[in-house]
């Protein structure tokens, strides 16, 4: 005996184990098969409903598809709420005929169900065959059916894009409807047409006056209880109209001119006390910024975003900051008027708002408005995880927009002092380039940095800068105090002892000690008249000639030998020339790429990195890295590798592989060719990106592997 669907559900839920459930389902399936064999038409709809439930549980029900079709084709009206579920090609024609009959039904719910079935489960062939019937329903007198037909057309376009022209003529009729649901679905259909076929935008622009009139009626109409949302008349329809106007007006001045008045009315008449009004205003701002409107309207849009910034809702403030960051390139002056409000957002309790405000403040900085004071205030109060990134940004801003060199040095020192863990070879190179290229700044910078060194600073960048300046301009340090410096000039012995303490400091890394070894040997010519200091320098160099660090050991031994060559010592240890801008970029590229080995130079001082931008040069194969930083995310480095060969024969089967540490992520693109031309007659390029999750704390490190065949001999090389 057949049980009801409700009883089957109850029996399944009462099963305590999966085996009990399977037994219950198998027993019911056997009962349903028996009923189908007996051609019991009275209970067919009940059995099909149970099959659908069993199918939802994950059990096979394909053996009942024909019964579904018989039920759909039957004369009873009750089965129509069941889905159309035939799949075999032999029955698709019957399904199509059943759908067509339902589309012509006088019952709006049956016609609506047929539209849902066509849109959701029908094939492209059925959609093409039934699209004329759906098109007729779009312009019918029943708003419910018109709405369902319009939604069905959206799904049909996704399956059959070539039918876009078919529905174009019906848009005008749908836009003339007074039913808001029909208007809303019509606008959705228009957007889908524009996405499917961008050429449709030009033909749909003729409906712009109709859309403007509809939006004006919504804005100026009184209270409508059936469409009211917190005092706003149908905000969903208003938002959709504004979105469509943005699509139609983008890049078309004539259409944009028609929208000026209505956009001004929406911006000024919409109440912003509720979220519904804020949603409309936000969409209005996006539309104003996307189309070609007069400057006054753009200022009005930016002012709306400025009001959003003082809203209590964190989501609204975040949206405002995000949008201002996007539109700042279009009207920087209008955004600058809200600078103080944006800076106040740096004090917000929400970290995401602080981060967005920081990015916007960074974008607001220009020659006339260097917001370093505000950024420094935020640096002192921000979370530890943001300090390194913010420090890098402040250093970049100061370098880019500084007009006073002494202020530049003071600000960099103040910034680095506030971020004790920040490390950046790029910042070291930039500051060294500034100091070497500005003779009048050298004494001032050396005394300022020495003061920080004497205060026992632990900041790695400050340590390296101070040690480098002391070694390069030691005679200026002991010769007198420049204007603007309050401290007294130290004596040579004090300077050397201070550098000695840096070598013993547990916070000084190997790179800082390498800088200090360089400073020691430089001071042998700067402090030539201080024998006690020279003796201490020789002692330090001898002490590190047995260092566990191979780099420190090598430098100490080489420098000790150099000091014995009086004929060339003075020339080798003379001041470094001013860095050209081109050299600075090469240094940044080399520092961001990798620490080189093989025949390339070892990881060393800034001057070595500048002199060796090539990452690999061995057996005639040369690899150069061109590195660029992502402006929006400094932790991401894009690297373009160029491969050239000086060998007389081409390198075939060329394969370049890269591995990175766990704190980094790698994304590689394929190489332009698998064959490197001979005799430097051409090059092969390959790009890849690395994301450093510990940016500012750990450097970018790469391990490379190169495989190729040269003259029939396979070659495999590795390096880091």
Automatic annotation (TrEMBL):
The keyword Protein transport applies. It is found in: Cytoplasmic vesicle membrane; Golgi apparatus. This is Adaptor protein complex 1 subunit gamma. The keyword Membrane applies. PROSITE patterns: GAE (PS50180). Signal peptide: none annotated. SUPFAM superfamilies: ARM repeat (SSF48371), Clathrin adaptor appendage domain (SSF49348). It comes from Emiliania huxleyi (Coccolithophore). It comes from the Eukaryota.
């Amino acid at each position: 005996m057949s049980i009801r669907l409700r009883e089957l559900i109850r029996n399944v839920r009462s099963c305590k184990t999966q085996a009990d459930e399977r037994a219950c389902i198998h027993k019911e399936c056997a009962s349903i098969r028996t009923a189908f064999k007996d051609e019991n038409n009275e209970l067919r709809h009940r059995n099909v409903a149970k099959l659908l439930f069993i199918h939802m549980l994950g059990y096979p029900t394909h053996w009942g598809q024909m019964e579904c079709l018989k039920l759909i084709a039957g004369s009873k009206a009750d089965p129509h709420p069941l889905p159309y579920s035939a799949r075999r090609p032999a029955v698709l024609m019957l399904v199509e005929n059943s759908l067509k009959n339902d589309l012509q039904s006088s019952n709006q719910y049956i016609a609506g169900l047929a539209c849902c079935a066509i849109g959701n489960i029908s094939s492209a062939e059925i959609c093409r065959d039934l699209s004329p019937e759906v098109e007729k329903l779009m312009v019918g007198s029943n708003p419910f059916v018109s709405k369902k037909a319009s939604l069905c057309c959206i799904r049909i376009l996704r399956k059959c894009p070539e039918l876009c022209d078919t529905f174009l003529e019906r848009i005008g009729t749908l836009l003339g409807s007074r039913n808001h649901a029909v208007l809303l679905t019509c606008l959705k259909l228009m957007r889908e047409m524009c996405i499917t076929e961008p050429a449709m935008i030009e033909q749909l622009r003729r409906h712009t006056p109709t859309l403007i009139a509809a939006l004006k009626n919504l804005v100026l109409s009184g209270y409508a209880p059936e469409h009211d949302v917190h005092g706003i008349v149908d905000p969903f329809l208003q938002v959709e109209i504004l979105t469509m106007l943005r699509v139609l007006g983008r890049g078309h001045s004539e259409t944009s001119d028609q929208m000026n008045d209505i956009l001004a009315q929406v911006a000024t008449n919409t109440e912003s006390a509720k979220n519904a009004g804020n949603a409309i205003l936000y969409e209005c701002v996006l539309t104003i910024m996307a189309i070609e409107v007069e400057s006054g309207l753009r200022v009005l849009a930016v002012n709306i975003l400025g009001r959003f910034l003082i809203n209590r809702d964190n989501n609204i403030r975040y949206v405002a900051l995000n949008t201002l960051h996007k539109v700042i390139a279009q009207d920087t002056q209008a955004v600058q008027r809200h600078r103080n409000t944006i800076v106040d957002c740096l004090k917000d309790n929400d970290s995401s708002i602080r981060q967005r405000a920081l990015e916007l403040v960074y974008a607001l900085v220009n020659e006339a408005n260097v917001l370093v004071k505000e950024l420094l205030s935020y640096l002192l109060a921000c979370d530890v995880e943001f300090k390194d990134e913010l420090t890098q940004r402040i250093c970049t801003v100061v370098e880019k927009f500084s007009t006073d060199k002494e202020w530049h040095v003071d600000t960099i020192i103040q910034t680095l002092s506030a971020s004790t863990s920040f490390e950046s070879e790029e910042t070291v190179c930039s500051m060294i380039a500034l100091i070497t290229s500005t003779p009048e700044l050298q004494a001032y910078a050396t005394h300022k940095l020495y003061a920080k060194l004497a205060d026992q600073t632990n900041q790695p960048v400050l340590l390296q800068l101070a040690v480098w300046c002391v070694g390069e301009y030691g005679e200026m340090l002991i010769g007198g105090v420049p204007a603007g410096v309050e401290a007294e000039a130290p004596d040579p012995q004090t300077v050397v002892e201070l550098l000695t303490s840096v070598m013993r400091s547990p916070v000084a890394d190997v790179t800082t000690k390498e800088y200090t070894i360089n400073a020691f040997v430089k001071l042998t010519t700067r402090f030539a008249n201080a024998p006690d200091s020279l003796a201490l320098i020789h002692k330090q160099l001898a002490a590190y000639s047995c260092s566990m660090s191979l780099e420190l050991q090598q430098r100490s031994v080489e420098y000790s030998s150099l000091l014995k060559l009086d004929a060339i010592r003075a020339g080798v240890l003379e001041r470094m020339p001013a860095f050209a801008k081109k050299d600075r970029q090469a240094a940044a590229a080399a520092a961001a790429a990798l620490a080189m080995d093989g025949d390339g130079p070892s990881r060393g001082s800034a001057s070595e990195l500048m002199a060796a931008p090539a990452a690999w040069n061995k057996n005639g194969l040369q690899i150069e890295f061109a590195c660029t930083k992502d402006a929006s995310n400094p932790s991401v480095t894009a690297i373009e590798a160029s491969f050239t060969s000086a060998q007389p024969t081409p390198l075939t089967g060329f394969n370049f592989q890269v591995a990175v540490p766990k704190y980094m992520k790698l994304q590689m693109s394929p190489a332009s060719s698998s064959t490197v031309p001979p005799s430097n007659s051409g090059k092969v390029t390959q790009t890849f990106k690395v994301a450093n999750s510990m940016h500012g704390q750990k450097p970018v490190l790469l391990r490379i592997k190169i495989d190729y065949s040269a003259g029939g001999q396979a070659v495999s090389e590795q390096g880091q």
